[in-house]
Recover the amino acids of this structure.
C-alpha cells in the first residue's frame, strides 16, 4: 500500500507539473498557445484495484499552467479511499511535443492529449498517464500501473471539467 501511495504521489507530482491555476500574467500568456491544458480541473474519478472497482475519488482535481515550453503543476488532489494523494508544484519541459523531466523524455503532448509512461522500480511495473480533451472545457484523466507480469495493479480514471478558463479550448 505504501508503494502504491508513493507511486500515486509521483503521478500527482508529475501532473502537478502539468496543472496549475491560470491567473494574472500566466492567463494572458496561455491564451495564445494552441495546445493548452491550463486550468483548474475538477471532477469525480473511479479507483480500481486489480481490475475491480474499489471507490469513487472525490476530490479529484488538478491545477496547471501550460506555455509553449513548460507544463507546470501547481497542485492536485485525489481522494480515492483508501488512497489519498496531494501533489506539490513541479515543472516539465515541452520540447517539440515531447515532455522532458530531469533530462528524460517521459511522454508527449499535443493540442488534444497528454501521454506519459515510465517504468516504476518500487512497484516493478509500468506507470501510464493520459489526459484527453473530450469536449470543450472537459478532459478525461486516466492513470494505471501494470505489474511486470501483466496484471493491472491499480487504475484511476474520470472526467474533469475546467473551473476557471472559459475559452481556452479551440
Amino acid at each position: 500500500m505504501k508503494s502504491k501511495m508513493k507511486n500515486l504521489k509521483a503521478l500527482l507530482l508529475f501532473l502537478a507539473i502539468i496543472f496549475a491555476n491560470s491567473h494574472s500574467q500566466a492567463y494572458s500568456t496561455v491564451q495564445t498557445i494552441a495546445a493548452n491544458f491550463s486550468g483548474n480541473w475538477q471532477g469525480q474519478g473511479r479507483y480500481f484495484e486489480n481490475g475491480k472497482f474499489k471507490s469513487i475519488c472525490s476530490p479529484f482535481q488538478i491545477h496547471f499552467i501550460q506555455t509553449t515550453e513548460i507544463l507546470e503543476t501547481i497542485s492536485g488532489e485525489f481522494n480515492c479511499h483508501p488512497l489519498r494523494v496531494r501533489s506539490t508544484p513541479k515543472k516539465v519541459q515541452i520540447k517539440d511535443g515531447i515532455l522532458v523531466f530531469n533530462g528524460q523524455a517521459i511522454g508527449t503532448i499535443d493540442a488534444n492529449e497528454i501521454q506519459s509512461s515510465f517504468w516504476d522500480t518500487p512497484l516493478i511495473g509500468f506507470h501510464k498517464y493520459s489526459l484527453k480533451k473530450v469536449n470543450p472545457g472537459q478532459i478525461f484523466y486516466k492513470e494505471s500501473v501494470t505489474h511486470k507480469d501483466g496484471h493491472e495493479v491499480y487504475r484511476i480514471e474520470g472526467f474533469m471539467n475546467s473551473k476557471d478558463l472559459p475559452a481556452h479550448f479551440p
Remarks:
- Residues 2-18 form the longest helix (17 residues).
- The CA atoms of residues 64 and 102 lie 19 Å apart.
- The longest strand covers residues 52-66.
